[in-house]
Amino acid sequence: MRLILLGPPGSGKGTQATLLCERLQLEHIGTGDLIRSAMEHHTPMGERCRPIVEAGGLVPDETVNGLIAEHFNRMTPETGFVMDGYPRTLSQAEAFDRLLTAKNSPLTAVLEIQVEDEEIIRRVGGRWSCPKKGCKATYHTENNPPRVAGICDRCGTELTQRTDDKPETLRHRLEVYHRDTEDLIPYYKQKGLLRSVVGHGGIEEIYNKLIKEILPLSVPMQRSSG
Ligand code: AMP
Q: Known catalytic residue: 127?
């Protein structure tokens, strides 16, 4: 399966992408994670992105398109994936289409998680994540708390809050979503790929809604028992 998860920041995309990948054995490709990792390693690209990410803006299309193209060139063509945070503009969506066409790997579906801005602002305040490379588990103080406050259940690393989750930055990220990323909804709808679910309720409830949308589309590449 080749999936894109669309939704505003804080809609639960990252959590759902992690679950889909674990349970359907797909690769989780998050541009936010790739960019944060470049920032942590102080690479030239990471340093160019830092002020933009910290202000809640979008990194230039060529930079993310390049990151994704490099990533796909290292992957075997049969690998199923979930895109989390990419594409985010029409120009990125067109570049991604060209890449997938060149690799003869058409998308299976684009899953949109719908959540209103006010609900997002409430949720993001409680969001914590594991900074450890290769783990990156996400938690929420109300909906999905770790067993021990402040500590990752999976690897024991101390959890952190993202600087771009601060309320003013979050509001800006929401504006950017409405201005640039929402255009992708009619784009993928017109291609017959869009499946939308309302992102209210618990994590498993939303996961089940997503699964209901994609299971009818499943192809032999998927190794899930469910
Ligand atoms: P995320 O974790 O997906 O919310 O991404 C964190 C930040 O990384 C975003 O607020 C952007 O600054 C940057 N970023 C991630 N993905 C993209 C993308 N596809 N296009 C432009 N900027 C991105």
A: yes
